[in-house]
Design goal:
about 90 residues, mainly alpha, 2 helices
Length: about 90
């Protein structure tokens, strides 16, 4: 439930924006930035495993699109889902 006292935004518009951001993160950002880049370039080398360079190249090519989608949704706001940072009160 969205509301001013929780970790979620207060208005229906901001709640909808939050849901859009979550969907983008789930569908595109996590797989490309976390699995495609971080795991391949940080986690695997720390474990002594080789990185999948072809996979990294694909993820790198998609990263700017993912991040631009978030920037476009910000609509001039300083935070992703509105004008203030949400917090648990």
């Amino acid at each position: 439930m969205c509301g001013p006292r929780g970790l979620q935004p207060a208005t229906p518009r901001q709640c909808a924006r939050m849901n859009q951001i979550i969907s983008i993160a789930d569908g595109y950002i996590y797989s490309n930035l976390v699995w495609g880049i971080h795991v391949e370039l940080v986690s695997k080398p720390l474990r002594g495993e080789p990185s999948d360079e072809a996979g990294v190249a694909i993820a790198r090519s998609k990263a700017p699109v993912c991040l631009q989608a978030l920037a476009d949704l910000m609509d001039g706001e300083p935070w992703l889902a509105g004008e203030t940072l949400t917090s648990h009160q």
